[in-house]
Amino acid sequence: MATLIDFILHIDVHLIQIVNQFGDATYLILFAIIFIETGAVIMPFLPGDSLLFAASALAADPRYHLNIWIFIFIFLCACLGGDSLNFLIGHKIGKSLSNHSLFGKLIDKDSLERAKPSLKSMVRRLLFSPVLFRSLEHLLHLRQQVLVSPTSNLFVIV
């Protein structure tokens, strides 16, 4: 049991052994680790960041025949999927935990109610910000067309 815990906690150290033993299945193993670390609420002790760095370093070494682009895709899918699972777990059982006799004592109901309006305003701002940034991008592009392009064209002509 101690070796299993050591293996899980220091998987970045054992990554070369995983690559040598499992080959292309390494991608699936790393996907599962990142997905579980991100998605399972009770598993934040898994080595996420150090695993990303170690896997990227191994992908840079041609001896291990790992593709960095596959790693990027796998890790992105694992993070997004795990985050969505974590949100779904919180959404489904969050209310029941706040009403539970044991966990309900840990959650301050007044703070929870005060947080709801600020959460709604934050979501509104997050939904509005892409529109704002797109408008600013358009204005900056227009500024470049009006000011910079004629100046550069004049410089080329002279």
From TrEMBL:
<dbReference type="GO" id="GO:0005886">
    <property type="term" value="C:plasma membrane"/>
</dbReference>
<feature type="transmembrane region" description="Helical">
    <location>
        <begin position="25"/>
        <end position="46"/>
    </location>
</feature>
<comment type="similarity">
    <text>Belongs to the DedA family.</text>
</comment>
<keyword id="KW-0812">Transmembrane</keyword>
<keyword id="KW-1003">Cell membrane</keyword>
<keyword id="KW-0472">Membrane</keyword>
<keyword id="KW-1133">Transmembrane helix</keyword>
<feature type="transmembrane region" description="Helical">
    <location>
        <begin position="66"/>
        <end position="89"/>
    </location>
</feature>
<protein>
    <recommendedName>
        <fullName>Cytochrome O ubiquinol oxidase</fullName>
    </recommendedName>
</protein>
<dbReference type="InterPro" id="IPR032818">
    <property type="entry name" value="DedA-like"/>
</dbReference>
